[in-house]
Amino acid sequence: MRTHDCMASILHALLFATTARAFYLPGAAPHNFLRGDQVPLFVNALTPMLTGSDDAKLKSLINYDYYNPRFQFCEPEGGPQKQPESLGSILFGDRIFNSPYDIQMLEKNGTCQTLCVKRGVTPEDAKFINDRIREDYALNWLIDGLPAAEMKLDTRNGDLFFDMGFNLGNDDGPYHVLPALNNHYEIVLRYHSPAPGKYRVVGVLVWPSSIGGSQEESPTCNTENPAPLLLTEDQTHTIRYTYRVTWNESDTPWATRWDNYLKIFDPRIHWFSLVNSLVIVVFLCVMVSMILLRSVSRDISRYNAIDLSEDVQEDWGWKLVHGEVFRTPRNPMVLSVMVGNGAQLCAMVGVTLVFALLGFLSPSNRGSLATVMMICWTFFGGIGGYISSRIYASLGGLERKKNVFMTATILPTIIFAVVFLLNLFLLGAGSSGAVPFGTMLLIVLLWFGISAPLSAVGAYFGSKHGAIQHPVRVHQIPRQIPPAPKYLRPWAAALLSGILPFGAAFVELYFVMSSLFASRAYYAFGFLALTAGIVGLTTATVTILFTYFILCAEEYRWHWRAFLTGGGSAFWLLAYGLFFWASRLSLDSLSSAILYLGYLFLLVLLDFLITGTIGFLASYWAVRRLYSSIRID
Ligand SMILES: *[C@@H]1O[C@H](CO)[C@@H](O)[C@H](O)[C@H]1NC(C)=O
Ligand SMILES: *[C@@H]1O[C@H](CO)[C@@H](O)[C@H](O)[C@H]1NC(C)=O
């Protein structure tokens, strides 16, 4: 079973990688049904949901399997069967099973049907269910790749949109001491007929409701003010699950069936954020080019002119440290490993965004984003090894083999350790979110079986190309460093410089966080790509600026500072993550809190590596340009 899962994942991953160029992705081709065809309904893990109102908070981060026995949902004959999923989909928490719902295209329209009657629901189960309802858990169903949604009204512009998932129950506060469990589902399936006799599913809506009273009688499916079904926690209960399917014709064609789901975000906010970021970037670029073009060219001409006219003269500014700038920094090993891994991550993000922009990561391919990211990460091991070994040689490092080994193993090991620890907490909480053993094995295989060897190959080419030549030689005896102004101290510089890239990404970040943690759909990839580009550009310019400042202050240890200054936005990301926790989450359980902190830590770490690398490489380039333009006697 495990190896089978694993094989299926590999196959799916490879399939995805090879067919990504063909226009129809697996799962993206329309499925035509004939009248009376079985329309399978799949069930996914239950997730905590952000309920409609704006000040709603997410109460948990833990997913539960639909067939967790404590929920007492009806199972299909022969037991639930796991559906094949892509690697990314599993990593992002999808656990898809089949279900006993009997749905046939255009048949039994509006007929009240009983799914099953569950007897012997114990008080412990009742308590478990009630707790999950209080935490706003939602059911996630899939029909023909479309998630079942609740139709909601956007209060800002009066548009109707589909909010994925629907409530497990109702916790309407004052009237009920106990929450009501939804045991009846009004399923409205919208279909579109592209040709006579052929039908396609283009919308899945569910209105859940709670029907109390005797659960043993034949059902009426009467949803007009029924007494709710309350599960008291002192006796055994019987629950009757009923459903009614209504087929509604729709003129939405198959190609645009996702539009309703993705309407959640107001594009004006994205535009606002983008314009805001653009203003910052233009402002910055003007500032930097002014400083760099005017002061630097003035510096250079003065350096070069004075030399000609006078025999004895005193150097000043950044020229003073020309014999120091390429001195080996402390811990060149750690720095080059970080830059190598950062470069690998940069390449991964870049290519993933290109894929997203080209529309390959369509929402009907669940988890395609994470799958593409994993595959890119794996195959870009070569880039990491190459950059790391060249930077290491340029910094004057001598332990080449150790560098190759550390580049290939350190970061995967750290990430793995964190994920493993989080997994333990998830397992402890009985969650289905824990990454299955087979998937873990697959990831180990990808990382240590493909990525690490590629990294070694990259390192081989890197050491063949050798160290980058420096325009000036390093003096034998290090110079004294005068005390730097306060704002140029490493941490101050990192925090100051981090504000700009963070500010540029701020609004987009909110949506990304909501989609990561509150399972909201995120498909504003155009905005995301532009924002990422702006963040990269801002990081590079700001870091170059700060490097110039510290060199002018005769502080020549710029290597680590450039990395730290570039990675400054990560500290703001951390602060923002904590703010997000305070404002949008109210996590009661320890496991949820640890989970959140663990994921946040990974996010911050990756951001630090990526932006730090951008800052370091940009500064390296600028420093080399700077010192190759002056004459040194
Ligand atoms: C199903 O019933 C609803 C109302 O009960 C009706 O509007 C709809 O047209 C029916 N669909 C079909 C395919 O008969
Ligand atoms: C289904 O169609 C009926 C009749 O056209 C309409 O009254 C009802 O609102 C539709 N339901 C949905 C969910 O679109």
TrEMBL record:
Signal peptide range in chain numbering: 1-22
Subcellular location per the Swiss-Prot or TrEMBL entry: Membrane
Keywords: Membrane, Signal, Transmembrane, Transmembrane helix
Listed Pfam families: EMP70 (PF02990)
Gene Ontology CC terms: cytoplasm; membrane
Lipid bilayer topology: Multi-pass membrane protein
Transmembrane segments: 271-293, 334-361, 367-392, 404-427, 439-461, 491-513, 525-551, 563-582, 594-623
Keyword Nucleotide-binding (UniProt): no
Single biological process term from Gene Ontology: vacuolar transport
Recorded superkingdom: Eukaryota
Matching PANTHER family: TRANSMEMBRANE 9 SUPERFAMILY MEMBER 2, TRANSMEMBRANE 9 SUPERFAMILY PROTEIN
Protein family according to the UniProt entry: Belongs to the nonaspanin (TM9SF) (TC 9.A.2) family.
Protein's recorded name: Transmembrane 9 superfamily member
Organism: Mycena belliarum
